[in-house]
């Protein structure tokens, strides 16, 4: 064996130690000399030593060193260490002895804390992000305070702001809505500041979204945010509505506005128009290296394989939670194309209410689609689990988010065709995002597929009559489906048309029957559903108008107070005639006119004696003219709503209502 290394020199720098030595006098006459480092942490005066353990790092390595130096990092501050450098060769094992090692004992210095490892956003609203983080792994002393540095992602990093706090959380207030911010946190001890953490990025909300915390305090949190939700929506709506004063009857004005909105809006490209659909995947979806993905558990079954949750850590970016859709083994070329087409579609969208694509893995198996993770899963199951727990304003907030996502899709000329609560995902902030962009192609190309989509029937209960009858899928048929989603939301995940058969549903719809308002559903919302279920697709509102309408309802919570009265969950049979309490159940004529944006005619109705809903529901177009409503558009609008009111009355009698 070799003799011991010579001239061991140590150099302590805070919690790192650099060691250097000279080669031994004798290498044992062999060429295979190398060095091993032994690290021991000791008590005072080198007593009670124990191995350093895993947290200490050696550079370039601890064993089989060829060079005569090593750097040892991540030691504890103010601690005694003994390091032994062993010279070894191929025969050292035969007769190991202390004469082959040299050692040194050092004391590390005071050191600043190590960086904070991760920052979480516990609560996000339009203007505030509540952050929380863990203490640094190596505090190296008592932490006196934390410093949070933040700036708008798109701004120059030098224009940052700093907040100091002694706790491990803070609220960053006064932020701009729908804006990404970058945050870094560092800790300070008596030894000074540690390094800033890596950047963590969070975006403020677009729609005031109440937070669902985990566990028991969620309802309290939800309720506490509602006030600000209403206020903020008032502000947005005030702006929008000051420019657009009535509901969707002002067709021309809206059409002009929509034309204007279309300018500069990208139009969606169908990946199947590409000769090689793989090219669409390359164009619209980022290829992710499989080594960046950690699959954690199975959370669902998709059409093509398992859906898992896991983590994605891209180089230079913070780790995020993701959902991972996998393509099961043994797929055909066509299945692979269909599977990846969802990513090519999703990758074209960028909106807070549309599920966000992180990327795809196509270069190795299994083929995967990686999207943002939505903690609360699909909306239908989420609502069933939380039956009755939300306020009407919260439910309208959910509907508003979905409508906003659908407006974005329709502006991009994308027709979803399978809009249903089961295809909406909900994150921990109660933000709803439209997902499931897989099936459009199946219906489009295959005449046989009108009644069989992936793995099942066309979703009859959610689909507009013209789409069922002759496959006329448009944004207007998506609006029909949206009306059904509204009904699902307001009934906390009830199955539309309950246990009726698909054939009975088609027949009932054709005969003019529509779903009644769910229990406690505001009349104004049921009216909006009925508008979405207009037989003539041109008479249905556009998504932009639905968003405005919902904003208006949130802005005026009184308009949501009026419900169908003491209705229980409806049964399938028609019931007895109108109840005497009908007027109070339906509210005043004045409220109704206000809810439909026709309050300007309040006096006309009163003067002509139409003071109760019972009187109003019998009005004809001539009656309208007679009481001074001359605009045909307004007459139509009021008559449509009168039909809704009639349906309300019938709903109080029974379950399905003809309109
Ligand atoms: P899909 O094939 O898109 O219908 O997904 C099947 C199921 O997996 C859904 O019903 C959800 O429960 C779950 N899932 C899909 N995507 C996500 C996601 N991004 N976050 C959380 N759960 C998801």
Automatic annotation (TrEMBL):
The chain crosses the membrane at residues 220-242. Residues 584-648 form the SAM domain. Its EC number is 2.7.10.1. It is found in: Cell membrane; Early endosome. The keyword Kinase applies. ATP binds at residue 325. Keywords: ATP-binding, Cell adhesion, Cell membrane, Endosome, Kinase, Membrane, Nucleotide-binding, Phosphoprotein, Receptor, Signal, Transferase, Transmembrane, Transmembrane helix, Tyrosine-protein kinase. Residues 293-554 form the Protein kinase domain. Residues 1-111, 112-207 form the Fibronectin type-III domain. The keyword Ligase does not apply. It catalyses: L-tyrosyl-[protein] + ATP = O-phospho-L-tyrosyl-[protein] + ADP + H(+). One of its GO terms (biological process) is axon guidance. GO terms for molecular function: ATP binding; transmembrane-ephrin receptor activity. InterPro entries: Eph_TM (IPR027936), EphA4_SAM (IPR030602), Ephrin_rcpt_TKs (IPR050449), FN3_dom (IPR003961), FN3_sf (IPR036116), Ig-like_fold (IPR013783), Kinase-like_dom_sf (IPR011009), Prot_kinase_dom (IPR000719). It is a single-pass type I membrane protein. One of its GO terms (cellular component) is plasma membrane. PANTHER family: EPH RECEPTOR A5, EPHRIN TYPE-A RECEPTOR 4. This is receptor protein-tyrosine kinase.
């Amino acid at each position: 064996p070799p003799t011991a290394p010579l001239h061991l020199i140590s150099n302590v720098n805070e919690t790192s130690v650099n060691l250097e030595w000279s080669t031994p006098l004798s290498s044992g006459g062999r060429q295979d000399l190398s060095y091993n480092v032994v690290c021991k942490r000791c008590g005072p005066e080198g007593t009670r030593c124990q191995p350093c353990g895993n947290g200490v790092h050696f550079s370039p390595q601890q064993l089989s060193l060829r060079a005569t130096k090593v750097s040892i990092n991540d030691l504890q501050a103010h601690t005694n260490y003994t390091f032994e450098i062993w010279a070894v060769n191929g025969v050292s094992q035969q007769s190991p002895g202390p004469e082959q090692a040299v050692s040194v004992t050092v004391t590390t210095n005071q050191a600043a804390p190590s960086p904070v490892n991760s920052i979480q956003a516990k609560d996000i609203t339009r203007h505030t992000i509540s952050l929380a983080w863990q203490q640094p792994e190596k505090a190296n002393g008592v932490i006196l305070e934390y410093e949070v540095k933040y700036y708008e992602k798109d701004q120059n990093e030098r224009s940052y702001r700093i907040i100091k706090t002694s706790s491990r959380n803070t609220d960053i207030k006064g932020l701009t809505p729908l804006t990404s911010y970058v945050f870094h946190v560092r800790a300070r001890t008596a030894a000074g500041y540690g390094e800033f953490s890596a950047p963590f990025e969070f975006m403020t909300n677009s729609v005031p979204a109440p937070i669902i915390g985990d566990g028991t305090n969620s309802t309290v949190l939800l309720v506490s945010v509602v006030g600000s939700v209403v206020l903020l929506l008032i502000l947005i709506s005030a702006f929008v509505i000051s420019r657009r004063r009535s509901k969707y009857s002002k067709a021309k004005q809206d059409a002009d506005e929509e034309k204007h909105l279309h300018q500069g809006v990208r139009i969606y490209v169908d990946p199947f128009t590409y000769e090689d659909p793989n090219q669409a995947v390359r164009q619209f979806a980022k290829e992710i290296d499989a080594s960046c993905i950690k699959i954690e558990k199975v959370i669902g079954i998709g059409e093509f394989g398992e859906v898992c949750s896991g983590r994605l850590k891209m180089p230079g970016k913070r780790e995020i939670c993701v959902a991972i859709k996998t393509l099961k083994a043994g797929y055909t070329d066509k299945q692979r194309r269909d599977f990846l087409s969802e990513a090519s579609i999703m990758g074209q969208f960028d909106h807070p209410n549309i599920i966000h694509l992180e990327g795809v893995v196509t270069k190795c198996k299994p083929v995967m689609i990686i999207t943002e993770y939505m903690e609360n899963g699909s909306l239908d199951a989420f609502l069933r689990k939380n039956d009755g727990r939300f306020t009407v304003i919260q439910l309208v907030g959910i509907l508003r988010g979905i409508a906003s996502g659908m407006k974005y899709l329709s502006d991009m000329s994308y027709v979803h065709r399978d809009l249903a609560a089961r295809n909406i995902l909900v994150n921990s902030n109660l933000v709803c995002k439209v997902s499931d962009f897989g099936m459009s192609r199946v219906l489009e190309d295959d005449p046989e597929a009108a009644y069989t989509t992936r793995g099942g029937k066309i979703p009859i209960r959610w689909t507009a009559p013209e789409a069922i009858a002759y496959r006329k899928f448009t944004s207007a048929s998506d609006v029909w489906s949206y009306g059904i989603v509204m009904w699902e939301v307001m009934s906390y995940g009830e199955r539309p048309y309950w246990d009726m058969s698909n054939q009975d549903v088609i027949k009932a719809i054709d005969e003019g029957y529509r779903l009644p308002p769910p229990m406690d559903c505001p009349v104004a919302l049921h009216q909006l559903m009925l508008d979405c279920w207009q037989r003539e697709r041109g008479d249905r509102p556009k998504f932009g108008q639905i968003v405005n309408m919902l904003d208006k309802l949130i802005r005026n919570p009184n308009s949501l107070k009026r419900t169908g009265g003491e209705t229980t969950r409806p049964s399938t049979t028609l019931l007895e005639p109108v109840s005497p309490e009908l007027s109070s159940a339906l509210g005043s004529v004045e409220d109704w006119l206000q809810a439909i944006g026709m309050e300007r005619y309040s006096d006309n109705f009163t003067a002509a004696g139409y003071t109760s809903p019972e009187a109003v529901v019998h009005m004809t177009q001539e009656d309208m003219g007679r009481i001074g409503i001359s605009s045909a558009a307004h007459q139509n609008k009021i008559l449509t709503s009168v039909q809704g009111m009639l349906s309300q009355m019938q709903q109080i009698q029974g379950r399905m209502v003809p309109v």
